[in-house]
TrEMBL record:
SUPFAM superfamilies: Cryptochrome/photolyase FAD-binding domain, Cryptochrome/photolyase, N-terminal domain. This is Deoxyribodipyrimidine photo-lyase. It comes from the Bacteria. The lineage of its organism: Bacteria, Pseudomonadati, Pseudomonadota, Gammaproteobacteria, Alteromonadales. Binds 1 FAD per subunit. It catalyses: cyclobutadipyrimidine (in DNA) = 2 pyrimidine residues (in DNA).
Amino acid sequence: MANSKIALIYQRLVSLQEELKERNINLQVMDGGIYETLPEKLTELCVKNHVTHVYCNAEYEWDERQRDASVKNSLNKMDVAFATFHDTCLVKPTEIMNLKNEPYKVFTPYFKRWLEMTLRQLPGVPEKCSANDTGLKHSEDDNQYIESLISKTNRQGSDGSDAPSWPATASEITKKMNGFIVEFAPDYPKNRDIPSIEGTSKISPYLSIGALSPRQCLFHVLQEYGEDALSPEHGAYTWVKEIAWRDFYRYVMFHFPHVSRGLPFQKHYQYFKWENNQQHFDAWKAGETGYPIVDAAMIALKQTGWMHNRLRMIVASFYCKHLLLPWKWAEDYFMSQLIDGDYASNNGGWQWSASVGTDAAPYFRIFNPTTQSERFDPQGEFIKTWLPQLAHLSPKQVHEPSKHCDVQRLGYALPIVEHKASVARTKAQFKGFLAALK
């Protein structure tokens, strides 16, 4: 997990503690340790405080499901009830099946059914609970423990990102979401691919830590636009579709648990021969591939903990289809850097880019990073922000500087691979692999 995400969680805990105090509810934070020790520690806490019921949101990854089963078993032995809610998804994974009562493997028919069910199941906003005596008393130890966690994160040093720049109170988070819905959602299809402007919601960090739910997102967009937001003609429809993609990748992990255990959805690809080229991997991570749009994106990720979605697709395609490196390496690296690191979405995205996942991009569909750069950063604004050594180049030069000047004199890298040769090699590798399976 990225240091930036850990810091955001701790900042949110500080705000949540204050928000709960207004309801006379004390927030106790417990270090559960590793999964194997959590059931015992949580049970001890419940017994000590005479807790009779434990509630949580369900998680759908394999290890998390095993953990929750162990927690339930441990609590039930001490007569403590354990119940889960399905609020990390809009629709429970078990409730969407095809006509054969089998899970969907393709997003489009899944999305059609998802839309039907979300409209049917969406509840209103619950009333705020009034202050009450919970029995769990506030103590200064709780304050000090949370503050110590934040201090510890700061001492360890971050991955270059600035988590405090992300608001952490419930009101600020809701305001950020609503501001996007009202001001930017109508133009989302047009602006979402331009990394140099504020064209996306940037609420994924809050979804990833549970500070927002997809149910809240859909409720507020429907509150603003009504069911027009679910029509393909409306700009907000594309944003709603992205929420559905998030649900879909959780759905896939639930029904096909091997994808959360290090295996590709299409299992035969576990035998595909990727290039174990550490030098290329290091260059990609450092933003030294010689392809400006890729390098600017990777540097921005390292310094901010954030990457625009179009850039995620570009750097992933380059990594998998130009460098032919193992997608698992990149999946793990992204999780170590992203403030919005989300296991299911990250895994699904990397498998999609590597052409090994469900509903994945065909292996022969390969982004040309230069043309992607010219299309989505035409003036080079994003590139020049993160690669200042290229700031003086013209829009024509900045996308492919090695063709126009001595980039090494500028302190920039030469391309580590040649586009056409790399694409040809990748296509041949995939084609040969698939032919051998027949």
